[in-house]
Design brief:
The chain has about 280 residues and is of the alpha/beta class. The protein contains eleven helices and ten strands. About 40% of the residues lie in helices and about 15% in strands. The strands form three sheets. Strands 5-4-3-10-9 form a five-stranded parallel β-sheet. Strands 6-7-8 form a three-stranded parallel β-sheet, covered by helices on one side.
Length: about 280
């Protein structure tokens, strides 16, 4: 087994724990818990993000509990602050998550700027991250694709930065690969694309850029066949990672290079001469 194959199998490490899958998935927007479980099984994901404000994890005893379908013994649950627009709401939500999940400290922080675009409010995000880190949380953080903001979040102690590819739920794919590359080149923690992925090729591109992983929800849940799309996303993330490690060929404009070697090729004059000798 060569070095590239070994590196392709390297685990994603977040907050000291290793994961074999680099695809992280959400649990919202499915028609029921059965479909949720089927899609997550097909994805191969080990980290499952859960919107605490929208999902029952036991706080509502008379409603179906997601933990019965996705038990913490099988998955790493990643409680998130979807729907929070202030520091106070985000911090309160993750404190509740810690109580519901018996002291669980790995969380996903997102503090949104407005309900129309769901773009992150970076000022509030930085403030909330500082509070949570001081309280012992391991914070994975949703951020804009601003390289400066991403670096600031890393420097205050976030265990992963999660820049958007495009707006949440838009399915527009990666709109600014150049900023993502800057974030990746300067990061010393995992960089995980979060938001905007629409189909398998988007996930593959993110991984080819050098991202450590991809998180998605709507791209799978809103597909006509969510389990089949989840399977496609699993393969795309794996293929993109291998392509990144392999190193793509250089792009060459108007500089064709034949796939087959040209040395020793038989030219037309040789063919004519050969025919004359045969005659």
């Amino acid at each position: 087994m060569d070095g590239v194959e070994i590196r392709a199998m390297e685990n994603l490490v977040i907050a000291g724990k290793a994961y074999s899958s680099r695809l992280l998935v959400g649990t919202g927007k499915y028609k029921d818990f059965a479909e949720t479980r089927a899609a997550i099984d097909a994805s191969g994901a080990e980290i499952i993000t859960v919107a605490i404000r929208r999902t029952n994890l036991g706080q509502n005893p008379d409603e179906p509990n997601l933990l019965d379908v996705l038990p913490p013994s099988q998955y790493t649950l990643l409680p998130n602050t979807a729907g929070c627009y202030t520091v106070e709401d985000a911090v309160r939500t993750l404190r509740l998550a810690r109580e519901l999940l018996d002291g669980h400290t790995l969380v996903k922080l997102e503090v949104l700027g407005d309900p129309k675009t769901l773009y992150p409010n970076m000022v509030e995000t930085l403030k909330a991250a500082e509070i949570l880190i001081k309280e012992g949380f391991h914070v994975m953080v949703y951020t804009s694709d601003d390289p400066i903001a991403a670096k600031q979040l890393e420097e205050i102690g976030c265990v992963a930065v999660m820049p958007l590819a495009s707006l949440i739920g838009s399915g527009m794919g990666i709109l600014n690969p150049w900023n993502l590359q800057i974030i990746i080149e300067n990061a010393h923690v995992p960089v995980i694309v979060d938001a905007g992925v629409g189909t398998a090729s988007d996930a593959a591109i993110a991984m080819e850029l050098g991202c450590d992983g991809v998180l998605m929800n709507t791209a799978i849940a809103a597909a006509r066949n969510p389990p089949l799309m989840a399977s496609a996303m699993k393969k795309a993330v794996e293929a993109g990672r291998e392509a990144y490690l392999a190193g793509r060929m250089a792009k060459k404009l108007y500089n064709a290079s034949p796939s087959s070697p040209v040395e020793g090729i038989i030219d037309s004059s040789s063919l004519r001469k050969g025919k004359g000798q045969a005659a």
